Structure formats: C-alpha cells, structure tokens
C-alpha cells in the first residue's frame, strides 16, 4: 500500500499571525520542514477567503498571482515572497473534480489572499513549493466540501500535501479588537476567553483527536450542528476548510490515523487558532 502524506487543518488567525512569533508559527515551520525533508511533490490548499457562487468551485490558474495587502504587517514580511503556482497539478485537480460531477473551472486572474500565503510563508520561508489553490463554495455545504477533499485524497499517495486553512474558533464580531488596534498586540488577554469559545474549541479538539476514518467525517459535519457553532463561527467560511480536510483524511483507509493538536494560539481574546495534523510521516531511514 502506498504511504499517505499527513493532512493539516491550520487556523490562520488574524493578519498579524504573519508578522508576530507564536507557537503556531513554530509548528507551521516544523510541518514545512518535515514536508521538505520528504521531497513533497507540491501543496494543495483551500483557504477561507475565496469562494465561488452558485454551485461552482474554482482553482487558481493565474501563472503569476499577486498578493492582497496584509494589514498590520510590515510589507517586508511578504511582498518579496514569490508564489509558485503548480498549473499542471491544478489542471489535473480540475479534471478529477469535474469527473466527480463538480462544476469546476480555472480562474486565470485570481490574486492570492493572506489566509493562504501567510501559511506558505511560515511553512516554507526559503521558497514556496509548487502549490495548487482551490476555492470553497459560497453555499457552505459541509458534505459538498467533504466530497471535494475525498476526491483529491488519492494525491496523498503521490506525495502531495493537502492543507486547509481556516479557523477552529473564528467569529470576528465577538473578538476584542482594542489591544490590536491601539497597541498592535494581537495576543493580549485582559480576560479569559468566553465560555462559548472554550466550549466549541474543546469540541473541535475532541472530534479531531478522538475519531478517525469515516467517523471523523461524520463528527466534523455534526460540529456545524453544535449549540455553540454559531457563536464560534458567525459565518461558515472559516470552517469549510476543516470539512475539506476531513474528506481528504477520513477514508476507511484512514481508520487508525491519529489526529493531533500540534499548537494553539489565542488571539483577540476569543479567537482560537488551533493547528491540527491528521496522520504522520514515515520515519526517514538514517
């Protein structure tokens, strides 16, 4: 049986996560180093800030994408970082998704957004690996996004790294912004996180670390019916990447794959940036 690459669900947090040091940033770098040590073929990534209308999805086919500006971060942190679109793999993913019945097209003009390149810069500071960028769908159907991940899951057997970047607890309306806006301190915690944030954060960890295989897929979709889900996610966009990842990491073949919480950073009092990995790399022979 071919080995499977791990799958990551990363909470990218605020834009300041690109500029400030944190345990999450250290974990992203560790995951990137591990991937490079195994000579990955490329990265396939879904973010939270790009979605397509109606029943469609898109993949970026822009050969030289620009970057959307990042607030509260010195431009030197990102402006000279060269993105490396993997157009052959992008076109292959379009074909795979189309064959499964998705209404999918390429987008030749899309400029990448910080939710994606923040993670790439932190994981691979010395250079962006070949990357395929896939949109979400604006109807935010959990089963739809899970099927997207399941459709692209076979690429894990070809040494591609699948990543979803969104948020475990990500409700911008309930964050406390004053320390960041006044003092550029995104990690200030004048009070503990509120109970709704703590409760949903724990529910996400329990699902990811205590289920696997098809049970993981079922449990991840049920999280959207959790009584604290709407408190933790005022909009669904930052949770779709988690469903995409569950599709890529929740096959019967993944039944014994371990899900781990690798790092965590609370921001703005109530935003929980949990970093999860499904599965593990095989040890490198010495």
Automatic annotation (TrEMBL):
Keywords: Metal-binding, Oxidoreductase, Zinc
Pfam families, sorted: LigB
CDD domains: 45_DOPA_Dioxygenase
Start and end residues of each Extradiol ring-cleavage dioxygenase class III enzyme subunit B domain: 7-252
One of the record's GO molecular function terms: ferrous iron binding
InterPro entries per the UniProt record, alphabetical: Extradiol_dOase_DODA, Xdiol_dOase_suB
Top-level taxon of origin: Eukaryota
Statement: the UniProt record of this protein carries the keyword NAD: no
Recorded family membership: Belongs to the DODA-type extradiol aromatic ring-opening dioxygenase family.
Protein name stated in the entry: Extradiol ring-cleavage dioxygenase class III enzyme subunit B domain-containing protein
Species of the source: Penicillium cosmopolitanum
